[in-house]
Amino acid sequence: MRFQPKASHFINGEYVDDTTGAPIDVIYPATGEVIARLHSATPQIIDQALNSAKSAQADWAAMSGTERGRVLRRAADIMRERNRDLSIIETHDTGKPLQETLVADATSGADALEYFGGLAASLTGEHIPLGGGDFVYTIREALGVCVGIGAWNYPTQIACWKGAPALACGNTMVFKPSETTPLSALQVAEILVEAGAPKGVYNVIQGYGDVGASLVTDPRVAKVSLTGSVPTGRKVYAAAADGMKHVTMELGGKSPIIVFDDADIENAVSGAILGNFYSSGQVCSNGTRVFVHKGIKEAFLDRLSQRLANVKIGDPMDEEVNFGPMVSENQMNIALGYVEKGKAEGARLVYGGVRIEGDGFYIQPAVFADVTDEMAIAREEIFGPVMSVLDFETEEEVMARANNTEFGLAAGVFTKDLTRAHRIVAAFEAGTCYINTYNLAPVEAPFGGSKMSGVGRENSKLAINHFSEMKTVYVSMNDVEAPY
Ligand SMILES: NC(=O)c1ccc[n+]([C@@H]2O[C@H](COP(=O)([O-])OP(=O)(O)OC[C@H]3O[C@@H](n4cnc5c(N)ncnc54)[C@H](O)[C@@H]3O)[C@@H](O)[C@H]2O)c1
Which Gene Ontology BP annotations are present (predicted)? Predict the structure, then answer.
């Protein structure tokens, strides 16, 4: 098989196999062809990976931040040098067009490795002077063994967004990719070793949810960082709570984009396209509820339809193609099911939504207009290319409706009125907000959700706090006064 890795798992600096685990077939979404077969981790493999991470952690944490950072920065360089090869793997794993994977996957992973590699040497505690000469100093310490569990939409990026800050702080990691896209995390592990990471610092094991669940409850694990759906997040958070483990939860969303009648329509249409159809709509922060002011609704829809006529759907390896298949048959059927629901609920399908016949999992991008708040397509995360356009008349009304959701991942506003833009983002109940753009996630900025969309933040200096803790040391310069 064309993309068969050397083995399923990467533990203690090398590939490890155990073919007695349940098979995991890797399917190329463009053709439905099986391109690799891996195996889920058995209890023995899980144990081996956790032991390897546990044994490596103290020595890794004892290295200077400069040394740890150097490893991460070298890994970033290697990833960039191999960007094309890594992007080809990512495209076969996910179905995302090469045009996208060349710029948004290994490159984003490399950004995280470079950024946290750069920060590693500057991670410190602080000195806190007290009265009478006493003082406190704090020591920033690693948490220990961290578990990363990934979703299937950005496999390389997720492996690095979790691994880079964890390793920068002196933790070690066991990463479990999604069973749907198991290939690229192995590449990340291999590259880290090539860059000088000691054995056992970054391990990858494959598996379904049960393997993730075993990792979360293991007493050797100090922290769990999950990217996944809200239902999985609930289970993982609850299981981690039992062991009082640290958690980061990057979960789903149903984010709003508000387009006022003074907005630059071309930019707003571009934002809505990026915020709904990039990666065939399989992006957690997508702005799938597009609230458009009544006065410009038809102009917005006309321009959107004109722009969508230029979408190039097809072979994701063709660099001209900008819209690929969905990741799996199952995900395609979920999206098609929502298109049917939307029609049945009385929304007006103004564009696409049709399955493209063939072996691949292709569906045209879909735009619904006249969507109302209570329709399932406006309430539930679809995780596919289905945009809902809703009308509004006043700012007050649209704010209440935009926030009327259990999710709180992202939100965007398009307007030329800057005062209004800042008022709107102040009122958004969402972790990541955009003014006159949408869906950018640079490593320098915190990324994460409010409400049911998650806990904690990835990227930026904030991620350091989620992968380390402070030890407080009180130093007395005086005699100890006791009452008796
Ligand atoms: N907020 C973010 O940064 C972000 C980014 C990408 C995707 N997502 C979300 O991810 C979802 C799509 O990804 P998915 O379908 O892979 O999600 P999912 O919740 O089905 O699976 C996520 C991961 O959790 C594992 N898992 C499942 N059950 C588990 C359990 N009981 N214990 C431990 N691990 C378990 C899976 O094997 C997989 O690796 C969407 O809801 C999307 O919004 C969020």
Answer: glycine betaine biosynthetic process from choline
Residues 71 and 40 in one domain: yes
pTM of full prediction above 0.80: yes
In terms of domains, do 260 and 247 share one? Answer: no
326-347: string of b/e by CB count within 10 Å (b at 16+)? Answer: bbbeebbebbbebbebbeeeeb
Which CATH number is 206's domain given?
Answer: 3.40.605.10
pLDDT tens for each residue of 209-267: 999 999 999 999 999 999 999 999 999 999 999 999 999 999 999 999 999 999 999 99
List Cα–Cα distances, 237 to 175, 263, 458, 465, in angstroms. Answer: 17, 40, 16, 18
196 and 268 co-located in one domain? no
Verify whether ligand 1 is closer than 6 Å to residue 227 (CB atom). yes
By alpha-carbon position, which residue is closest to atom 37 of ligand 1?
Answer: 209
Q: Is the CB of 217 under 6 A from ligand 1?
A: no
Task: State yes or no: is 250 an active-site residue.
Answer: yes
Across all residues in the chain, what is the average pLDDT? 98
Q: Tell me: do 167 and 124 sit in the same domain.
A: yes
Q: What's the 309 CA to ligand 1 centre distance in angstroms?
A: 32
Is 90 exceeded by the pLDDT of residue 349?
A: yes
- 271 and 319: one domain? yes
Distance 319 CA to ligand 1 centre (A): 29
Q: Is 381 in the pocket of ligand 1 (CB under 6 A)?
A: yes
Read off the pLDDT of residues 263-289 as tens digits, 9 standing for 90 and up: 999 999 999 999 999 999 999 999 999
Helix residue spans in 6-142 (DSSP H): 43-62, 65-81, 83-94, 98-104, 106-120
Residue having the nearest C-alpha atom to atom 43 of ligand 1: 252
What is the 285 CA–ligand 1 centroid distance (Å)? Answer: 14
* Beta carbon of 384 within 6 Å of any ligand 1 atom: no
